[in-house]
Design a protein that fits this description.
The complex is a heterodimer of chains A (351) and B (171). With 351 residues, chain A is α/β, with parallel strands linked by helices. Chain A contains ten helices and 17 strands. In chain A, the strands form three sheets. An eight-stranded mixed beta sheet of chain A has the order 12-11-13-14-10-15-16-17, with helices on both faces. About 4% of the residues of chain A have low confidence. Chain B contains six helices and no strands. With 171 residues, chain B is an all-alpha fold. The model of chain B has no long low-confidence stretch (mean pLDDT 88). The chains are: A alpha/beta (351), B mainly alpha (171).
């Protein structure tokens, strides 16, 4: 009970700060997501009112309580739309509800989701990503598809217009866009920040001159493309390759679209290193994201370590969840390996 | 007065026979349209990989008559605020169109069977179910054609004959 009250208090505080900042188009995002929920779950979530705007994830597991994650906590939800930490009070999600959600996500046509069931995630219009788990079908030791989905994790994409403003001055040298890597633990706002940097570079906002950006959106989360057209604002000079493998996509863009900056999400495989070298040879700036807690953690990961130690990146932005998702922890210089004088701040709220 | 009554009886029974014949013809047409609907659906799913809503929208633009109404009713139920699954929307469409389409009980059964897995399986199984539906409709179509060829005129004459007989009996 005490936890629930504390949570409400904290959420109220963050909510007020958000409203003062008023830069995030989350309400529309939440409404979009609710359309894909089974009616009984939708009704419950709608009862949550303003708190809905704070949701980052909605987790559904067959036979388990409805769980939501905000920037501050993970909690269960009662049928009345209230937070609880007692599972017997929470709304229990039936397998039927999950199937219904899945059908709504696939526009009642699961055959259109064959590729997604193979990959284990669905990207909804608006860039919201739905992770899938359940019983899998494998052939010759390889995953064919998730054949019976019993768990869904709905990650709500946020568009934090202007959130990159405090970091933009560090990302250019004169008019030249630098090679930048954004690192953070999961759910700390890497993709949201990347999207806003891309938008700012592309529109020429907060940078000396606009640049052409080539965006390889392998999972469709950055631009939230629906039938190839970005649903989220990634700027007017951005060419998007949606659903394209990073390596192929980057080379394709370099060959065909003459970008001045290449942007992509979640690097870390050995092949990514080779592609980054290609970008470097082409004399093009890049902005990439990766999973790591800090520069020490970066040094422990084989591929990221190479990128960091070889000085392939000129700036490293570190995010955390200290004050909620999107907290800027620091900016490091890739050559001197020293932190720049930046105070921790929650992007998109205080600025 | 008697003559007028007799004429009315003959006219009414002739019209009933004629209508019965018309129903046979209409069922044949409805079955042919339904077959066409399923054939187009097979193409839209098999080659274009369109979701059901979009596939049915395209089909409803091409079709005419009652079966087109069936397609638009299905889209309406899919778009409804209740968040119906494709199977539920299909079932509701069947219920709402029972009065509009001239079909026999086995024809409705084919449609009901088709709705059971609509949109819930992979492409291969969807196409298999649609092809099976087409084959079953074709069988019904052939039977309906034979029946119409045999009975259409018969019903018309029978209607008139029944009316005349009734008049003769009571005159």
């Amino acid at each position: 009970m005490f936890r629930a009250v504390t949570l409400y208090y904290k959420l109220g505080r963050v909510l007020r700060m958000r409203m003062e900042g008023a830069k995030e188009a989350t309400v529309a995002g939440i409404r979009e997501v609710l359309m894909y929920m089974a009616p009984c779950l939708r009704r419950t979530l709608e009862k949550m009112g303003e708190v809905l705007q704070e949701l980052e994830e909605i987790r559904l597991r067959a036979g388990q309580p409805l769980q939501v994650e905000t920037g501050l906590a993970s909690t269960l939800v009662t049928p009345e739309g209230l937070f609880t930490d007692r599972k017997e009070r929470a709304l229990r999600v039936a397998e039927e509800d999950i199937l219904r959600c899945l059908q709504l996500m696939g526009e009642n046509s699961l055959y259109t989701l064959e590729e997604e069931l193979k990959e284990g995630f669905i990207t909804l219009p608006g860039g919201h990503r739905v992770g899938l788990a359940g019983e899998c079908l494998a052939e010759n030791g390889r995953l064919v598809r998730v054949k019976r989905v019993t768990a869904l994790n709905l990650r709500i994409a946020r568009e934090a217009i202007g959130s990159s403003r405090p970091v933009l001055p560090f990302l250019v040298a004169g008019e030249r866009p630098l090679r930048v890597m954004i690192i953070s633990p999961p759910q700390a706002g890497k993709t949201t920040l990347l999207r806003d940097i891309v938008r700012s570079f592309s529109n020429g906002e907060g940078v000396p001159a606009p640049v052409k950006v080539g965006l390889v959106d392998e999972r469709g989360e950055i631009a939230g493309c629906f039938r190839g057209v970005p649903q989220l604002d990634v700027g007017i000079r951005t060419d998007v390759l949606s659903g394209c493998p990073k390596q192929d996509g980057i080379l394709l863009l370099l060959r065909s679209m003459s970008p001045q900056v290449i942007a992509t999400d979640e690097i870390g495989r050995p092949a990514d290193l080779r592609v980054i070298e290609e970008v470097l040879n082409a004399g093009v700036g890049f902005i990439v994201t990766a999973h790591a807690w800090d520069t020490q953690d970066l040094s422990l990961r084989p591929v990221l370590r190479e990128i960091w130690l070889q000085g392939l990146v000129e700036k490293v932005i570190i995010l955390s969840r200290r004050y909620g998702s999107g907290t800027l922890e620091g900016i490091w210089d890739g050559k001197t390996k020293k932190a720049l004088p930046v105070k921790p701040v929650r992007l998109g709220v205080e600025n | 007065m008697k003559l007028a009554g007799a004429l009315l009886i003959i006219l009414a029974s002739t019209a009933a026979g004629w209508l019965w014949g018309l129903m046979l013809r209409k069922r044949r047409k409805n079955l042919a349209d339904l077959r066409r609907l399923l054939q187009w659906l097979e193409t839209e799913i098999g080659y274009n990989l369109l979701p059901l809503r979009e596939a049915f929208f395209r089909i409803s633009q091409r079709l005419q008559g009652e079966v087109s109404l069936f397609a638009t009713a299905f889209i309406r139920f899919l778009d409804g605020p209740e968040g119906l699954t494709a199977g539920e929307a299909w079932q509701k469409t069947i219920e709402s169109c029972r009065e509009k389409l001239v079909l026999a009980a086995p024809d409705w059964m084919i449609l009901e069977d088709l709705g059971c897995n609509l949109g819930t399986t992979d492409r291969e199984h969807q196409l298999k179910a649609i092809r099976e539906g087409i084959e079953r409709i074709e069988i019904q179509e052939t039977a309906a054609e034979e029946r119409a060829a045999k009975n259409e005129k018969l019903y018309r004459y029978l209607g008139m004959a029944a009316g005349t007989l009734t008049v003769l009996l009571f005159y």
